[in-house]
Amino acid sequence: MSHPYEITTESVKAAPPAIVSLLHMGGMTPADWVTVLTLLYLALQIGLLLPRYLKRIRHYLEERRRES
């Protein structure tokens, strides 16, 4: 195995605990981060689904107008 590959592998293994430790020292507990990430996830889901639903609503309304 090459030396840079080993360094990369070990860095990736150590990153999650190191990030949690740094964030905890920064004043945010893991529970706070779970809340923030959950809200971010919800916002992304809403942002991705909203255009799709608006398109479906417009299509439905156009079809309804054509029928009448």
TrEMBL record:
Spans traversing the lipid bilayer: 33-54
Alphabetized UniProt keyword annotations: Membrane, Transmembrane, Transmembrane helix
Name assigned to this protein: Phage holin T7 family, holin superfamily II
Keyword presence, Membrane: yes
